[in-house]
TrEMBL record, chain A:
Residues 1-21 are annotated as: Disordered. Residues 85-186 form the Thioredoxin-like fold domain. This is Mitochondrial outer membrane protein. Coiled coil: none annotated. Residues 238-304 form the Metaxin glutathione S-transferase domain. PANTHER family: METAXIN RELATED, OUTER MEMBRANE PROTEIN (SAM35), PUTATIVE (AFU_ORTHOLOGUE AFUA_1G13180)-RELATED. It comes from Zasmidium cellare (Wine cellar mold). It holds the Pfam family GST_C_6.
From TrEMBL, chain B:
It comes from Zasmidium cellare (Wine cellar mold). It is found in: Mitochondrion outer membrane. This is Uncharacterized protein. Keywords: Membrane, Mitochondrion, Mitochondrion outer membrane, Protein transport, Transport. InterPro entries: Metaxin_GST, Mito_Protein_Transport_Metaxin, Sam37/metaxin_N.
Length: 309, 434
């Protein structure tokens, strides 16, 4: 047996030596292009096209901070307030801090965090042309603090700050949700602001309306802990909240007796601006009635509109 | 009898953990009534959810919810203390009310309902003591589900052992941030690190899910307690008043639920005792002032009493400080209706309770019930079609019942074929005959 193996080995060896050179010649003949094709490909590429233009909507200039908010095309060019309180809060806050920025209409789908607003920081020419990471709203304050040229907006150290902030985040927000989304008389408004820009298809619009409405309803259900909520209670709660905030503001210019507007003013203004806006298109606006009882709150709102918008 | 008519009735969820009620808002309402109308009201344990609890009946007026009871008291001048406050203090009181309502509920949700050990060993048994048998299957799970939706965004679910099966849901990675089992990569990394000497860095210790959830819980608790401690300061009550005010009652309602229950995981109470002594003193002060301690078994003994006199006698013999009465006896039809609605709520889509907004203009019927209407429509069309085909009213289009292959003779083609065959046969026959 060993003898046999030896013999077979020796018989294979010469063949193995021959193999590489043989396949090399074969490969050349298989993969080499036929002469007519090669002539075409020698001229390749025939024409080099220019790179495609960026889409019309793509930002032309990146040297300015861009805040993506819910707004319309023409209101964005005029720098008008956004129609969404969450966006308007940060828009106002950025105005307070004196940063120059412009707003563009956007939707939740455009945002990396799934929520508007977010800020696309400007790219200075010294840096590479790559865009910086966008900044979601919950990091905006930190970002502003890191900017050198921006005057910092000091927050009050008042121990009651948290308590009063909860008035805005709960009572007024809940009343707002009810008034805008769950009040049938205002549904044309929701349709115009949030639904129509998304789609022109009636069925899709129906679905979006339904989603918005159930999201607002879920929010109210969650905080009430039951699925029975009285609209009267919501408005009573909001009325008390306005009363408390009016007492807090008193005759001061800004909340907590500060010399300049702060984030609290911005978040309160985000609601009052829209509630008291006659051109907003409210069909049913009980909050306006509650708010106009307090002249100092109305003045506070008008002061911000005049100075910053 | 005149005094009899003047008594108010306060309907609350029954007692637990040595507190008048298992619900914080009900506790606050009891505190408020004990403060303002002591001995002029009755406590009635109930579990019905038709009206939001606490539910106060004062003569003609029926009021539900703590804030509405407070408004009622102010309007009826039952509590005049808050109107004596300066406007600034009143504003503070309102702001604190809103703060407590929003923040404290989250903490209670986590501590009593989301933390599975606490729910299984404390909250659930407390409920089963005071609820009738059928409500035990619907009310506690419902409250737990509500608590979980309220705390979902906080990412503290790792303290909830019961949600293992929910991890199969297709959530994007990193949705909950902490508390999730690290996936495959972590597993392989661990294998690889077996080759190296094991080293626990501070960072790796902090990143373990059970620890990071604890940090998160402490952060949430701090966000609630710190502002309160600062506002309370050295004062006896939040607004610096002589006696407790409306907002103190509310705060007591929530703090007592955090402090007094004996729980297997009592991080909340121990945090309070360790770091926020002034709040503990505040809670104990109000409890002792208003005699709010409740013996659950004594209240449950009242359930067995037959008459009103017996209830009063029992109450006096046991020296119960709170004016407890027995719950209104439930009839068979009522029980049946409750069971029916509880089962109906379990039906997906159709039975899922939707928001009922009272005192407001309703959306058109079609808009409100679009999903249930469309589902009912599709289901009934499908059912009607099935029945029609099953009974033979509607026949599914099909060919001849018997298909014969290889037809050759004309007589195979039914009547006409036979007739034709007859003609055809006639020919040769005639021919033969001719």
């Amino acid at each position: 047996m060993p003898d046999n193996d030896k013999r077979s080995d020796t018989s294979i060896q010469p063949a193995a030596h021959n193999l590489p050179s043989k396949t090399a010649t074969n490969a050349r003949s298989i993969f080499a292009l036929p002469a007519p094709l090669r002539r075409i490909f020698d001229k390749f590429p025939l024409i080099t096209y220019d790179a495609n233009e960026l889409p019309e909507r793509a930002p032309k200039t990146r040297d300015e901070h861009v805040l993506h908010v819910f707004t319309t095309e023409e209101e964005a060019t005029r720098g008008r307030p956004s129609f969404n309180p969450g966006c308007l809060k940060w828009q106002t806050y950025l105005r307070f801090s004196g940063v120059s920025f412009r707003t563009v209409p956007s939707s939740n789908h455009a945002s990396p965090s799934g929520m508007l607003p977010f800020l696309q920081p400007a790219v200075t020419s010294a840096e590479s042309n790559n865009a910086l990471d966008p900044i979601p709203s919950n990091k905006l304050k930190k970002w502003l603090a890191s900017q050198k040229k921006v005057k910092s907006v000091d927050e009050t150290a008042d121990i009651r700050y948290e308590a009063y902030a909860s008035l805005l985040d709960n009572r007024i927000r809940k009343a707002w949700l009810y008034q805008l989304y769950l009040e049938p008389r205002n549904s044309p408004l929701v349709q115009r602001l949030y639904v129509a820009p998304c789609s022109s298809q009636p069925l899709v619009q129906k679905a979006i309306t339904h989603q918005l409405r159930s999201a607002a309803a879920l929010e109210l259900e969650k905080s009430a802990g039951s699925n029975v909520v009285s609209a009267l209670d919501l408005l009573n709660d909001a009325e008390e909240a306005f009363q408390a905030l009016a007492d807090l503001l008193g005759q001061d210019q800004w909340f907590f007796g500060q010399g300049h507007p702060s984030l609290f003013d911005a978040s309160f203004f985000a609601y009052t601006c829209l509630i008291l806006d006659d051109a907003f298109g409210w069909k049913h606006n009980p909050l306006e009635e509650l708010l106009s009882k307090h002249q100092n709150l109305v003045d506070h709102r008008n002061r911000i509109v005049e100075v910053y918008f | 009898m005149e005094a009899e008519e003047r008594t108010m009735q306060l309907y609350i969820l029954g007692p637990a953990f040595g507190l008048p009620s298992i619900d914080a808002e009900c506790n606050a309402a009891v505190t408020l009534l004990q403060l303002h109308v002591r001995d002029k009201y009755e406590l009635i344990p109930t579990h019905e959810q038709a009206d939001r609890l606490p539910f106060l009946v004062d003569g003609q007026a029926q009021i539900s919810g703590y804030n509405n009871i407070v408004r009622h008291f102010t309007n009826k001048r039952i509590s005049t203390k808050s109107s004596q406050l300066s406007s600034e203090r009143r504003a503070d009181s309102l702001a604190l009310t809103s703060f407590i309502e929003s923040q404290a509920q989250t903490l209670l949700d986590i501590s009593l309902y989301v933390a599975f050990e606490n729910y299984r060993l404390a909250t659930r048994p407390a409920f089963s003591k005071l609820l009738p048998w059928h409500a035990n299957y619907s009310l506690p799970p419902k409250r737990r589900a509500a608590a979980r939706t309220r705390t979902e965004h906080l990412g503290v679910s790792s303290i909830d052992v019961d949600n293992v099966h929910e991890d199969m849901s297709h959530r994007p990675p990193g949705f909950e941030g902490v508390g999730k089992e690290p996936g495959f990569e972590a597993e392989t990394k661990k294998r690889a690190s077996l080759l190296l000497p094991k080293k626990e860095t501070v960072m790796s210790l902090l990143q373990q899910p059970q620890h990071s959830a604890v940090f998160k819980l402490h952060a949430i608790a701090e966000n609630f307690f710190e502002p309160l401690v600062e506002i309370l300061g050295d004062k006896d009550y939040l607004l610096g008043s002589e006696g407790p005010m409306v907002v103190d009652c509310l705060l007591y309602g929530y703090l007592s639920m955090m402090l007094f229950p004996q729980l297997p995981q009592d991080w909340l109470a121990s945090t309070m005792r360790r770091k926020y002594r002034s709040l503990v003193r505040f809670t104990e002060r109000i409890r002792d002032l208003l005699a709010l301690e409740t013996n659950v078994d004594h209240v449950l003994a009242l359930y067995k009493c037959k008459s009103r006199q017996e209830v009063i006698a029992e109450r006096q013999s046991r020296k119960m400080p709170l004016p407890w009465t027995r719950p209104s006896p439930s009839s068979f039809s009522k029980t049946f209706a409750e069971i029916r609605s509880a089962i109906w709520e379990q039906v997906p889509i159709l039975g899922t309770p939707t928001l009922q907004l009272h005192n407001a203009k309703q959306f058109p019927f079609l808009d409100r019930n679009l999903s249930s209407i469309s589902i009912t429509f599709v289901a009934s069309v499908a059912a009607a079609g099935y029945i029609a085909i099953r009974t033979g009213t509607l026949v599914w289009p099909h060919g001849a019942e018997v298909q014969i292959f290889g037809r050759k003779r004309l007589s195979d083609f039914g009547h006409i074929g036979e007739a034709l065959a007859g003609i055809n046969l006639l020919g040769p026959q005639g021919g033969r005959g001719g």
